[in-house]
Automatic annotation (TrEMBL):
Residues 148-179, 305-413 are annotated as: Disordered. Keywords: Lipid transport, Lipid-binding, Phosphoprotein, Transport. Residues 305-315, 401-413 have a biased composition (Basic and acidic residues). This is PH domain-containing protein. GO terms for molecular function: sterol binding. It comes from Cyanidium caldarium. One of its GO terms (biological process) is intermembrane lipid transfer. The lineage of its organism: Eukaryota, Rhodophyta, Bangiophyceae, Cyanidiales, Cyanidiaceae.
């Protein structure tokens, strides 16, 4: 099948018209040009199916838009890519019947047809092509099993057919290939599937060769038609009609040849994919080794400092000595915060008690170093995080040092049910409309995830006092990119906020950062947030509607809504929209997250704009070496590109690079680093950041000051944090039922839902956004929460 479809490219180029050709289980797409090809470009026939198999065309030229010759000359085509359908999941779009999604496991292709009917024809053809090769594999396995039974019967009769040993060798080769696949990457189900198809084809060819050689060695007249029918066709019945038998033999030969072409087309891509996986593993191993070395150096410096402190307290020379029995002593008293959030008074303890407690602490550190050195290297989801951590303020106003660990242990991971049984009917649909079991969640709300977006708010502090408008915009772009640093390894789903649910965050000093979030709509799910910096130097606000789609092997998350950053000193108003997040290998293999797309930041005050591009990890032929790469450039109001840009990766660090116009030399400075990862097991099985671990902490002072709608008071989220999975599940069901009952009551009474702390406004494009009213902090100061609904 062949015809024209529109392929989604990116936000700047949008939908691009391409010629698609489906043949031998591979969907190729071509860019068409009327002008001659440029040097080095590949010239291919405009219509391969028409030239090779004209009788098999399934669409007319008028329906499919077949490429034709025009008056200007032949239409040239350049191949832009190939998609192996054996490794893909094909699905229709749930809201747009003219769209198709093809998920290869590493990339999602979004296609659109000119009509709904044409889209249905393409989906049917793609699914039939995929099923065709799956049937070939099953039929080959069945024929090989029958051949093995036949060989066993012949061996019992004392006959040893020629080639039987080669069939066994082929089986052994198949087992070796399967073991090799596990070595190369047991997490890649697509790789195993492709290797299985190749092994079955090899076994089928060996079987056909063996049986044909066996027939040639037999004495007597050779019935060619019968031999070919028994070897190639699935039937062993007598030949009744020679024309029917010949047709079956030819059809079987076509199947075998087509299958061979399909496997050869996929084999090159398969090896490139495996090579890319190996490069990615090597890169992650090097990163982890460097991270462990840094942790070791830090711990050794702490040990050395503790020894010097002990020597000074004892009146001895601060000379490092090797302590006996791995014991270390420190004369300083250990002070821990009280559970109610107030700092306890430091009381002297007996010298022996202090010495023993400190000894245990330092011994534990030394054991941690030894364990770190013995531990195997972790994957990219556990890459170390660098940078300062923030303390959290109590809602009552006192400083509270945030907790370092979750109550749950990494050993408390529950057995999860089959995700496929839950999602099998959800391909192409929005997962926000499907109830997911609580064991697939992480103990944090989506509103709290919004607060993680401004963890690096110090970038806005710097931007608020930077005179250069280009640098200001790049600092804001760095904040926009830092949103995604917390997604590395975070495969747990946050809790969907209930309607009216809120969350507040206040920095330790109460002035550096204050933020309020509220769930203002449930269908569609819309969250609003508003943050203020020190001395009101900047504000950050957003209206976020998260849409997601499940494509079979992955889930794509599309955050819709505009982020607004205002810098008061320069009267800057900067807006941008977030990039796309994709979670790969949802059902089989190791899940990993990719963030990609282009974020366009526009300063509406001076006309400057910045384009920050998050590189998408390559598909089959791509390489993981560029995973997470980011690059951002700035243009002024006249459209001139400035000699400065941002580069780095969203999972490690960002550098601001400035190029001198005269000399051409570049100088760079690191303006953001990903925060350091918490200790091993600190967040249980959830891979949460140190900042996220503290967001759901609830103290006595907080409980007395927070509104009853705050996410910290949500019972199912708290129970999950405490590893009480059964109660967390029942509480989640209870809260959802309570929310449905409240909605029905409002519909019955005709009373619309009105958010408490945000009001709707229309932006320049006519879309609805939610603006913070400021009433939250007034109610908080008075402790007046009577207007809050009972949602928990």
């Amino acid at each position: 099948m062949e015809g024209h479809l529109y392929k989604w490219t990116n936000y700047l180029k949008g939908w691009q018209r391409r010629l698609f050709v489906l043949e031998n289980g591979v969907l190729s797409y071509y860019a068409e040009r009327g002008a001659p090809l440029a040097p080095g470009e590949e010239e291919v026939p405009a219509s391969p199916v028409t030239m090779l198999l004209p009788g098999l065309r399934t669409l007319s030229a008028s329906a499919a838009g077949i490429a034709r010759r025009d008056e200007a000359g032949p239409l040239q085509t350049v191949c832009r890519g190939r998609i192996n359908l054996q490794l893909a999941v094909i699905s229709s779009h749930d809201s747009d019947p003219a769209r198709i999604a093809i998920d290869t496991g590493t990339q999602i292709y979004h296609l659109r047809a000119d009509s709904n009917e044409l889209c249905k024809q393409w989906v049917k053809a793609l699914q039939q092509s995929k099923a065709y090769f799956e049937r070939l594999v099953k039929r080959a396995a069945g024929r090989r099993m029958r051949a093995m039974v036949k060989q066993a019967e012949q061996q019992q009769e004392g006959v040893s057919p020629a080639g039987a040993h080669k069939s066994a060798a082929a089986d052994a080769s198949s087992e070796d290939e399967h073991d090799a696949a596990l070595e190369f990457g047991e997490e890649d189900a697509a790789t195993l599937q492709a290797l299985q198809s190749r092994d079955e084809l090899l076994a089928e060819l060996v079987r056909v060769q063996s049986e044909l050689r066996h027939a040639l060695t037999q004495s007597g007249e050779l019935d060619t038609l019968r031999v070919l029918q028994e070897t190639l066709a699935a039937s062993n019945s007598s030949v009744v009609n020679k024309d029917v038998a010949s047709a079956g033999i030819v059809a079987a030969l076509v199947d075998l040849i087509t299958w061979g072409i399909h496997v050869l087309n996929a084999d090159d891509e398969l090896w490139k994919h495996r090579l890319a996986n190996e490069r990615g593993r090597a890169m992650r191993a090097e990163t982890e080794a460097a991270s462990l070395q840094r942790q070791l150096d830090e711990l050794l410096r702490e040990l050395e400092h503790s020894q010097r402190t002990e020597s000074r307290a004892d009146g001895k020379s601060p000379v490092a000595t090797e302590p006996e029995d791995d014991e270390f002593f420190d004369a300083g008293a250990q002070v821990s915060p009280r559970p109610d959030g107030r700092s306890p008074s430091t009381s002297p303890e007996p010298a022996g008690s202090v010495s023993r407690s400190t000894s245990r602490s330092l011994s534990d550190r030394r054991l941690a170093v030894q364990a770190a050195l013995r531990a195997p290297a972790r994957t990219s989801s556990d890459t170390s995080r660098r940078g300062p951590s923030r303390a959290m303020s109590t809602a009552g106003g006192g400083v509270w040092e945030p907790r370092k660990r979750l109550p749950i242990s990494d050993r408390d991971t529950p057995p999860k049910p089959s995700l496929w049984s839950i999602l099998k009917d959800a391909i192409g649909k929005d997962l926000s409309k499907i109830s997911i079991p609580v064991v697939f969640n992480e103990p944090i709300s989506f509103l709290q995830r919004l607060v993680e977006d401004v963890e690096a708010s110090y970038l806005l502090d710097v931007a608020a006092r930077t005179d250069d408008p280009g640098r200001r915009l790049l600092y804001v772009a760095a904040l926009a990119v830092s949103h995604y640093s917390s997604t590395l390894g975070r495969t747990g789903k946050p809790f969907n906020p209930l309607l009216g649910e809120t969350f507040e965050y206040v920095s330790p000093d109460g002035h550096s950062l204050r933020m309020v979030c509220e769930q203002v709509s449930h269908h569609p799910p819309v969250s609003a947030s508003h943050a203020v910096g020190r001395d009101d130097a900047w504000t950050y606000s957003t209206t976020c509607e998260v849409r997601n789609k499940f494509w079979g092997k992955s889930v794509e998350v599309f955050p819709r809504g505009t982020c607004h950053v205002r810098l008061r000193r320069y009267d800057d108003h900067i807006t941008y929209e977030k990039a796309t997040t994709c979670v790969h290998n949802i059902l089989v293999g190791r899940m990993w997250i990719d963030n990609y797309g282009e974020m366009v930041l526009v300063n509406h005050t001076n006309g400057y704009r910045c384009v920050a591009k998050l590189t998408k990890t390559g598909a089959f032929w791509g390489s993981h070496d560029t995973y997470g790469a980011v690059r951002a450039h700035v243009w002024d109001a006249r459209g001139r590109q400035l000699p400065m840009h941002l580069e780095g990766a969203w999972h490690s660090a960002l550098r601001l690079v400035h190029t001198d116009d005269d000399s051409g030399r570049s100088r760079s400075e690191t303006i953001w680093r990903r925060p350091m990862e918490p200790p091993e097991g600190a967040s249980g099985p959830f891979h949460m950041t140190q900042f996220a671990i503290a967001l759901n902490e609830l103290t006595g002072d907080m409980r007395r000051a927070l509104p009853p709608t705050d996410a910290r008071l949500r019972p199912d989220q708290r129970l999950l944090e405490n590893a009480d999975y059964l109660k967390a599940t029942s509480e989640k069901v209870r809260l959802e039922e309570k929310q449905r009952a409240a909605r029905k009551q409002r519909e019955h009474s005709g009373t619309p839902w009105t958010p408490l702390w945000f009001a709707p406004v229309s932006n320049e494009g006519g879309a609805t956004e939610w603006q913070f009213t400021g009433a939250y902090w007034e109610s908080r100061a008075r402790g007046e929460w009577r207007r809050c609904p009972d949602i928990f």
